[in-house]
Structures are given as structure tokens and as C-alpha cells.
């Protein structure tokens, strides 16, 4: 098992560039295919790319909000106390790896932005507390829980296609969540992953003590310093009182959650905007004051740079594929090699390949969705 892990780790380090470099290379590759395979002119493809570059701004914002506000929710004091309580009962490396996996998995099922941050926080706290724990593995275990994102309540694609007027409604219609994330085969699969994944990760713990890399003293000291209670402001100005008013946060938070209750009572369904609405107002309540929430959101904004940078390129790629005829050509290829029964399998195979170039679920759908739906 160690040899397998080392092989793939070495492979990724040598040959896998940064995600932004990948999306640039993918853009160039799609343009090249449009010119050489579809016979389009470079000028026409550059024009199509530029015209479509900002076509997914609303979707980009939704994804950015999920991650940034998920970060804020995961770092709320109440959540931190709950994490500390769990971590305090963990004594062995195997238990630590299993707990980190479950934290990342359950958190990602609820909200992928929340799960990404929660898993990392739990993993770091466990690495500090549990001696003999392989630090690279516990971090990887926490992030492996992200596997459950596509089955969960914030899964981008199911939520997009369940929303009226989504970009591909004319081709595929509106697909209710009862046929995707709330279908029993999908829920059963998620449960199986949640059970199996911690077992697999525990098996990856190095057997040789010399191969174990514990958390560095620098990171340990940094985390311990971060746990020191912050100094409370002694200022008593009206502005400070308003900024640090727990009543204001509680009132607006309750109003927000009342809207959610009214929304479901009226028979409306879950969508990306409602997911973001829920995590926003839960975060406001859990952080206690407007000032505390705003401060943490400022930190959370630093996590969304990849989304802001890459998603316009995904939109440009989609525009080139559509304008050039590549969508139809690729769809025709799948139709030629598939039957109604095997098309999902070939879709899965192509998804594995695309995922290396478009690691974001939303970006992945933007590239693969058009030609797979056209083939279907």
C-alpha cells in the first residue's frame, strides 16, 4: 500500500501543474480542436471565447459564496467548541484518521464549503493532540471526505438542474432533487462511501515508525497561539456597541431562518441560492455579532480566489465548444459507441478524464454537460 501511495504522490508532484495553468492549457486545447477538427477560424473562436467569458457570473458567485460562507460557518465558536470536545476523546492515530475522514465527509455532505474547512480544522487539531499520527495522511483523509460533496445538499449539478431557467433547461428540462441527491440509490451510495472511506484511509497509515511525519513544531505553536482568547474591546462608543451587538445578529438571523421556514412551508424546493441563504444566516447567529461575522468573512474571502479566477475560463471553454460544433461532434462520437444502457458508463469514463482538467464540480459540468446531454 505504501508503494502505491508513493507512486501516485510522485506522479502528481512531477506532472500535475496548478489548476489555473491547467485551465489555460485546456482553453488552448479546445481552441486548437475547434480550428483543426471543426474547421473554424481562429478569429471566430477567439470572438466566441471572449463573448462567453462572463456568461457564468451568477453561477460563479454562487460557488464563491458557498465556499466563503461555508468557511465562516465552520469557524464559528460553537462549532469550534464541538470540534474540541470530539478531539479530546481521540487517543490513537487510527481513530484520528477515521474521525478526520468522517468530519470532512459529513461536513461536505451538508455543505461542501463547510466540509472543506471543517475537515482541515479537525485534522490539524488531531495532528497536534495525537502522537504518532502521520500528518500528511490525516490532512488527505479529511479532504477525501469531499467525495461526498456530489451526493450532498450543496451538490452543484443537482441543484442547478433542479432550478427553473437553468442554462440547459431547453435541452434537458428541470430534474427534481427526488431523482438525484434524494433518490435512494444515491443516498445508499453516499452511506456506503461514508462507511468504507474511513476504513481505507486508516489502512494507509505507514507501518514503519520512521515513515511517519508528525506535524511540525512551527505549525503546532501557530495553532496553540491561535487558541488564545482574543482581547475584547474596551471601547464604549455607540458605533462599537452596534458592531458588537449580539441582539442585532440574533434578530436578523431569526428573520432569515423564518424566511427559510416559510419557503419550505409554501412547497418550494431547495436550490443553490437557498443553500447560501441558510449558511449565511446560520453563520450570523453562531458568530454572535456583526463585527465577528464580518471579520471572519474577510478571512474566508481569501479561499475563493481559485473560483473567481477559473470559472470565467470554464465559461469561455463552453462558448468555444458550442460555437465551433465540438459539442455536437463529441456527442455524435458517444452516440456511435453507446447504447441507451452503456451511455452512462461512457459518461462516467469521460468524467474521470475531465475531472483532472476541471477539478471543480461546477466547472466540470460546464464542460461535460452540454455534449453528454446532447448525446443522451
What is the strand and helix layout of this fold?
Layout: H1 2-15, H2 19-36, H3 42-52, H4 57-74, H5 77-87, H6 93-110, H7 112-129, H8 135-144, H9 156-161, H10 169-172, H11 184-203, H12 217-226, H13 238-243, H14 246-265, H15 272-287, H16 290-301, H17 305-324, H18 326-337, H19 343-357, H20 361-375
Structural class assignment: mainly alpha
Shape: globular
Element-level helix/strand string: HHHHHHHHHHHHHHHHHHHH
Overall pLDDT metric: 87
Strand content: under 5%
The overall strand count is 0
Helical residues, percent: over 70%
Describe the largest sheet: none
Describe the structure.
There is one protein chain. The chain is mainly alpha-helical and 376 residues long. It has 20 helices and no strands. It has helices at 2-15, 19-36, 42-52, 57-74, 77-87, 93-110, 112-129, 135-144, 156-161, 169-172, 184-203, 217-226, 238-243, 246-265, 272-287, 290-301, 305-324, 326-337, 343-357, 361-375.
Compact summary:
This protein is mainly alpha-helical. The protein has helices at 2-15, 19-36, 42-52, 57-74, 77-87, 93-110, 112-129, 135-144, 156-161, 169-172, 184-203, 217-226, 238-243, 246-265, 272-287, 290-301, 305-324, 326-337, 343-357, 361-375.
Amino acid at each position: 500500500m505504501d508503494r502505491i501511495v508513493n507512486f501516485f504522490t510522485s506522479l502528481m508532484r512531477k506532472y500535475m501543474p496548478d489548476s489555473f495553468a491547467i485551465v489555460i492549457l485546456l482553453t488552448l486545447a479546445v481552441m486548437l480542436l475547434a480550428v483543426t477538427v471543426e474547421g473554424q477560424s481562429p478569429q471566430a473562436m477567439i470572438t466566441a471565447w471572449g463573448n462567453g467569458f462572463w456568461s457564468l457570473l451568477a453561477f460563479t458567485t454562487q460557488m464563491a459564496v458557498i465556499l466563503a460562507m461555508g468557511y465562516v460557518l465552520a469557524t464559528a465558536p460553537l462549532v469550534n467548541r464541538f470540534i474540541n470536545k470530539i478531539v479530546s476523546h481521540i487517543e490513537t492515530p487510527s481513530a484520528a484518521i477515521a474521525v478526520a475522514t468522517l468530519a470532512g465527509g459529513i461536513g461536505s455532505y451538508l455543505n461542501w464549503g463547510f466540509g472543506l474547512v471543517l475537515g482541515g480544522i479537525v485534522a490539524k487539531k488531531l495532528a497536534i493532540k495525537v502522537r504518532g499520527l502521520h500528518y500528511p495522511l490525516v490532512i488527505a483523509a479529511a479532504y477525501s471526505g469531499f467525495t461526498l460533496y456530489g451526493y450532498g445538499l450543496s451538490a452543484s449539478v443537482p441543484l442547478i438542474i433542479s432550478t427553473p431557467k437553468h442554462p440547459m433547461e431547453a435541452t434537458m428540462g428541470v430534474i427534481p432533487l427526488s431523482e438525484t441527491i434524494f433518490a435512494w440509490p444515491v443516498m445508499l451510495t453516499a452511506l456506503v462511501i461514508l462507511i468504507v472511506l474511513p476504513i481505507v484511509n486508516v489502512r494507509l497509515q505507514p507501518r514503519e515508525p520512521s515513515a511517519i511525519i508528525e506535524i511540525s513544531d512551527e505549525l503546532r505553536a501557530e495553532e496553540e497561539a491561535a487558541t488564545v482568547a482574543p482581547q475584547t474591546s474596551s471601547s464604549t462608543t455607540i458605533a462599537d456597541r452596534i458592531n458588537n451587538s449580539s441582539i442585532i445578529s440574533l434578530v436578523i438571523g431569526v428573520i432569515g431562518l423564518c424566511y427559510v421556514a416559510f419557503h419550505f412551508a409554501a412547497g418550494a424546493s431547495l436550490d443553490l441560492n437557498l443553500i447560501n441563504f441558510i449558511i449565511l444566516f446560520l453563520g450570523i447567529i453562531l458568530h454572535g455579532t456583526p463585527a465577528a461575522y464580518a471579520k471572519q468573512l474577510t478571512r474566508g474571502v481569501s479561499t475563493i480566489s481559485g473560483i473567481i479566477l477559473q470559472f470565467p475560463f470554464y465559461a469561455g471553454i463552453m462558448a468555444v465548444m458550442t460555437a465551433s460544433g465540438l459539442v455536437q461532434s463529441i456527442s455524435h462520437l458517444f452516440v456511435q459507441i453507446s447504447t441507451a444502457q452503456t451511455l452512462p458508463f461512457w459518461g462516467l469514463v469521460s468524467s474521470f478524464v475531465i475531472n483532472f482538467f476541471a477539478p471543480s464540480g461546477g466547472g466540470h459540468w460546464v464542460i461535460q454537460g452540454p455534449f453528454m446531454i446532447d448525446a443522451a
